[in-house]
Amino acid sequence: MHNIFRNDHVLYDHSDNEGRARVIALHKIDFDNDWNSHGPMYHEVHRLANLIMGGKKIALRCWCKPKPCHLDHVVDKINEVVNTQLSDSLF
Length: 91
Known about the structure:
Layout (H helix, E strand, L loop, with lengths): L16 H20 L3 H14 L17 H19 L2
Helix pairs in contact: 1-2, 2-3
């Protein structure tokens, strides 16, 4: 299965907090570039947001949780889309 949100930036030492921050920051750049060009991650975030708004529960998983993770930004963006769509539907 293809993981659309995978982080292609490798963390070689999982105890290296600076390295973790670096690969997370690099993934955020990749994600933001994808988002701005309405790429695959953009569309997947919207698909997941629509599932949530339809009452579905989703789970995003990464081996590095509960430590800081590249998926934190993805989850934040999904929540942002859900909240924006809910706010827009009130007017």
